[in-house]
Design goal:
Layout lengths: L8 H31 L9 H30 L3 H7 L4 E6 L2 E2 L5 E7 L5 E7 L5 E5 L7 E7 L15 E9 L5 E2 L1 E17 L2 E6 L2 E4 L3 E5 L14
Antiparallel strand pairs: 1-9, 1-12, 2-7, 3-6, 3-9, 4-5, 4-7, 7-8, 9-10, 10-11
Helix pairs in contact: 1-2
Length: 235
């Protein structure tokens, strides 16, 4: 019995991009040939302008078709199953691993990894402009996975930073010879999923006001019950 395999949004986009690259190469070759032909045409028997005008029109038609294909690719991405999974997250409490962490309730959390034992480690919290807001020197400099929680305070001024802003973590680890050790870091965003979108074929969910790809969501639970308590009866 024949089987049918679904075409993912990513594979469709790859095919469109390949077609666009081939078209760009063909256009370049066509223009070079056209220019050469016009330079070397017989003045007494010039080229038929209708012929090359028709070819240019055909090229334009192919470009328009590729734009249409882009729109179809977005539709494929929305119907590949991922959008349904994302919609099911609406109103749920979700956790995602991203490059950034959002300051919430005066705290932001990251996980990071040190490739091998270090003799010095510096952790820096950077704002969206790349400015260093806080610097920490952890005691644990051994290799492996670590976690870091920032209290949201500027290390220089001691001022508490506003909730809702996104920050990134930069970890610098050195060995005894001053050689840099490979490190990685990931932030976490937690909150209620309030929106689901599809952007350029990629399904996105909005968690606590921040858009992240659905592939970066690592946990989903029911939202906390916020039913207001019944007020006590008046005495």
């Amino acid at each position: 019995m024949a089987t049918t395999s679904a075409t993912s949004g990513a594979s469709v986009i790859d095919k469109i991009n390949n077609s666009r690259n081939q078209l760009a190469s063909s256009e370049e070759t066509f223009l070079k040939l056209l220019t050469t032909q016009m330079k070397n045409q017989d003045p007494l028997s010039p080229m038929d302008s209708n012929a090359f005008t028709g070819q240019i029109v055909q090229m334009t038609g192919v470009e328009q078709q590729l734009v249409t294909n882009d729109l179809l690719a977005a539709l494929v991405g929305m119907n590949d199953g991922g959008i349904a999974d994302a919609v099911n997250m609406m109103g749920k409490q979700a956790t995602a691993e991203t490059d950034t962490s959002v300051l919430k309730d005066g705290k932001a959390n990251w996980s990071y990894t040190i490739g091998r034992n270090a003799t010095s480690v510096k952790i820096e919290v950077l704002d969206k402009y790349g400015n260093v807001i806080a610097t920490k020197l952890p005691d644990d400099m051994s290799k492996g996975d670590k976690t870091f929680e920032w209290d949201g305070k500027d290390s220089t001024t001691g001022v508490q930073q506003p909730n809702g802003a996104a920050y990134t973590l930069r970890v610098t680890a050195l060995d005894g010879e001053g050689t840099k050790i490979a490190t990685t870091s990931k932030g976490r965003i937690e909150g209620i999923v309030t929106a689901v979108t599809n952007e350029s074929g990629q399904n996105m969910v909005t968690i606590d006001g921040v858009k992240v790809p659905i592939s970066q969501v690592i946990g989903v639970t029911n939202a906390p019950d916020k039913t207001p308590e019944t007020p006590a009866e008046a005495a």
